[in-house]
Amino acid sequence: MLDATQNSAQTRRNPVPAELDALVIGTGVAGLYQLHQLREMGLKVHACDTASNVGGTWYWNRYPGAKFDSEAYIYQYLFDEKLYKDWTWSERFPGQREIERWMHYIADRLDLRRDISFSTTITRATFDEARGLWTVETDQGETITARYLIGCTGMLSAPLEDRFPGQASFKGQIVHTGRYPKEGLALEGKRVAVIGTGATGIQVIQTIAPEVEKLTVFVRTPQYVLPMKNPKYGPDEAAWYKGRFDELKATIPHTFTGFEYDFSNTWADLTPEERRAVLEEVHTDGSLKLWLASFAEMFFDEEVSEEISEFVREKMRARLKDPRLIDILVPKKGDYGFGTHRVPLETQYLETYLRDNVEAVSVRDNPIAEIVPEGVRLEDGTVHEVDTIIMAVGFDAGSGALARIDITGRDGMKLAEEWRKDIRTTLGMMKFGFPNLFMTGAPLAPSAALCNMTTCLQQQTEWISGCIRHMQETGKDVMEPTAEGEDDWVRHHDEVANATLISKTNSWYTGSNVPGKPRRVLSYTGGVGTYRGKCDEMAKEGYPAFAMSKAGAPQEA
Ligand code: NA7
């Protein structure tokens, strides 16, 4: 099989047509499917991507060890049975290269590349109220008008690259995991620092440790982790999951998290022994089941949260043994509960710290002060000398990617400024003041936290296509949430989110990883199935939270 980077390589950049019905920003999971749907509907549609090829998250995150935490056979498009069945996965949780190849397969099978401009960044978009059109500029000097602008820009695609003072002074290589170079980094025999122990850092650390001369990991907040079981898949397994296509299609979109499994136990109904048996069983599964299919009460009830958290801490302590490592790497009682941060799956991650060439440095009470030419300097003056720094320090989630584009809506409203004041959307797919700007993976929808991304992104792009179809059928061409519609959604979102322990925890889930970002649980926590129901109901009732009009005419609800 061809390598993903060779496969269907785009040698010449497609220019972006000057006049479009719809412009899609991004060619990851959402962008590819959105482009396909709108083209099937007969729209003149085109997509742009900063990247030189398709893949989105799976294009950019090519750091060592990058892989799925969702089972491959559910991280899938389910709109076309043949498309699903003609692709075969090699293991339960495949790595980035295989996933990237799969995204190339999707783009090729749907013949999408002829309508994509790669290496093209959208820099500015301004809504022209008189004509009801977006005027969009690219970094290639093009100006485009489009009726609909659809940001399929990703929930976790705006990397926090400038995290520390002095980064430019470092004399070795310094990279953010979300911008890991295509050609890789030569790490063999090098002294390497990894900063960050989120889902990304964990995958990097466990993967590169055997290769490097010395690995220094800077740990601020330790994570609850679950061991992954990742069996290879052969013809039997492929026949098994392909044979379940109808079943998966019927269940996945309606579960709480868009996975095939759901919460199936009630804490209060079981004895302590029975609860323990459930926890042991889901822990042994080697998947995210302990998080997403054990006891939903862990998200609401402090006592249940603490009991389940202690169960996981106990498992972690047993593997680490060393009290110093336990102190640095195992969350402490009262810090935060299991599952209120994104739970990473790992393979021998904890055992990695038992290696002679790996050092865990706690920066909780002695933070990183700056990067100096030799390496990483802590507040107490200690300098850790390294040759390479891998920054696994995360992203400006949800709002970050679109806020980095200069988007001006009605009455001169700037999206970035609005979101700097307060992060609000309607159903996570539109924003008051920004007519005909649709978005996926944006705040206040279930995307990314507690959701299998393909499930959520298929649903969102299909809903957006439905809006456009509705406008076409009713002779309207401008759509915008009403102020009341947006208030209602934000209120409902907050009510649900603030009842959870997630809202009390610091992480990218609440935007607290970005200084100055308004605090709000970014993802809708009412459940993927419930969210879908609310979106469907909105459409069925004729979009009551939105105003629709003819371009140039006054809006009517
Ligand atoms: P995360 O989950 O935001 O993790 C970032 C990590 O970087 C986390 O451990 C942070 O510690 C750490 N960090 C950030 N800034 C600093 C500073 N200044 N000093 C020390 N440590 C720091 O990002 P990931 O890329 O791992 O994962 C993002 C999502 O991608 C993930 O949830 C999956 O859905 C896929 P902190 O917790 O802030 O103390």
Please name the defining characteristics of this protein.
5-stranded parallel sheet; alpha/beta; 557 residues; single chain; 17 helices; disordered N terminus; binds ligand NA7; 20 strands; FAD/NAD(P)-binding domain
What does this structure look like?
The chain has 557 residues and is an alpha/beta fold. The protein has a domain at 4-158 and 397-549: FAD/NAD(P)-binding domain, CATH 3.50.50. Helix content is 30%, strand content 16%. The strands form five sheets. Strands 1, 2, 3, 4, 5, 6, 17 and 18 form an eight-stranded mixed beta sheet that branches. Strands 7-16-8-9-12 form a five-stranded parallel beta sheet. The protein has a three-stranded antiparallel beta sheet with strand order 13-14-15, with no helix packed on it. The radius of gyration is 23 Å and the shape is globular.
Describe the structure concisely.
By secondary structure, this protein is an alpha/beta fold.
Question: Any chance you could write out the topology, listing elements then pairs?
Answer:
Elements: E1 19-25, H1 29-40, E2 45-48, H2 57-60, H3 81-85, H4 96-109, E3 116-117, E4 122-128, E5 133-138, E6 143-151, E7 173-176, E8 191-195, H5 199-208, E9 214-219, E10 226-227, H6 235-242, H7 245-251, H8 272-284, H9 289-292, H10 302-320, H11 323-329, E11 345-346, H12 349-352, E12 358-362, E13 368-372, E14 375-378, E15 383-385, E16 388-391, H13 400-403, E17 406-408, H14 415-421, E18 437-439, H15 453-474, E19 478-481, H16 483-498, H17 528-540, E20 546-549
Parallel strand pairs: 1-2, 1-6, 2-3, 4-17, 6-18, 7-16, 8-9, 8-16, 9-12, 10-11
Antiparallel strand pairs: 4-5, 5-6, 13-14, 14-15, 19-20
Helix pairs in contact: 1-15, 15-17
The protein binds ligand NA7.
